[in-house]
Amino acid sequence: MLFLIPAYLTEQTPLEYFAPAIKSYILNTDYFFVENEKTARRVIKFFCPEKPQSALKLYLLDKYSETSDLAEAQDLMKQGQDFGLLSEAGLPCIADPGNIMVKWAHKNQIRVVPISGPSSIILALISSGFNGQNFTFNGYLPIDKAERKKKIKHLEEVVQRTGYSQIFMETPYRNNAMVEDLCKVLNPNAQLCIAANINHPSDEFISTQPIKFWAKNKPDLHKIPSVFVLGR
């Protein structure tokens, strides 16, 4: 089986926020596909401090990976070895490259087991007050200034035309620049939700306000995991 194991959004999240089943699935195998080895070891230790780190067999699965790079792991799965799949944060396969192994598992009649856990994208949406029936996750916006401005204007037009909520992210160290761009490009009355440090017990920040508010009250989001939602 291939277990899709959720990671925390922040290490400060209380353990009781998570389903006990997560620990059971991690204890079930020593074999894992991981986006980042250091992060994965911390996540495993968070849920199962008693599990020996030396026993872990970790296979790197990042945005550069292809299924052909994972031949050894695939052979083990065909022989009956269970694997876990860990993202760096939240649910695997959302804003995460893990889907290539899920696709492979389906093609090879290997059972895929999704485990409930947090998704910053969904938590931001349901906390925004925007349309949760129709929405689009746009991933990361372009780095190029002109292209990003064009994309932001496009997302605003989509919201106004369709009412569909538009969700996107930025690399944490560029969050403040993203807020600056949003304030410069969007209509002052456009509605923006900023959701930062989701699931942090004391520093969680989620607020939906018009752009004219954010222009005068810019939060400092430098290196803080954040999700942005445009809606109406």
Automatic annotation (TrEMBL):
Task: Give the signal peptide, or none.
Answer: none
Single GO biological process annotation from the record: methylation
State if Signal is listed as a keyword. no
Ordered alphabetically, the record's keywords are: Methyltransferase, Transferase
Q: Would you say which domain of life the source belongs to?
A: Bacteria
Output the Gene Ontology terms for molecular function: methyltransferase activity
By what name is this protein known?
Answer: 16S rRNA (Cytidine1402-2'-O)-methyltransferase
